[in-house]
Design a protein that fits this description.
The protein has a domain of 82 residues: lambda repressor-like DNA-binding domains (434 Repressor (Amino-terminal Domain)), CATH 1.10.260. The protein has 10 helices and no strands.
Amino acid sequence: MSIVRRTRSDVDLSKIEWAALDSVDDAAIAAQADADADTAPIFTTDELARARRVTAAPDPEDVRAIRRRLALSQEQFAARFGFSVDTIRNYEQGHRRPAGPARVLLRVIASDPDAVTRALARRRGWRPSAAGPWKRRQARRYATGAGRPDVGARPVGLARKSWTDDRR
């Protein structure tokens, strides 16, 4: 039997035998379903009674689920595991997807977050803080003058107001 798709406007309701439809009982419907293999139920009643709901573990790329399972705010999660808060927000909002080392780190965090914290604590001088390791590196770099252009230097081709003027 082929399936024919029709819209409501294609069906003429005046041609339907409503009395015949009203006379069909549950036993007749069950007999028709048993006769047609396509309408047979997939599971028996006993199988449905034994069925249990299975909830999958959060996907390692689902940073929000991992963070909520650990009961951490975005700032706390970023500081504890060495991410920037902007990166966490981008992952959670779907603007970016973790790739490479970040994806691997998130997989390890999802399976054993305390192991990651212990491994990071072994690094000399690292403690989870609100500033995070990237802020400390940035503070050291600018304190020593490394990575900062000379105060008087101005990139070639830019107008009087340049990006170095904003950083003073």
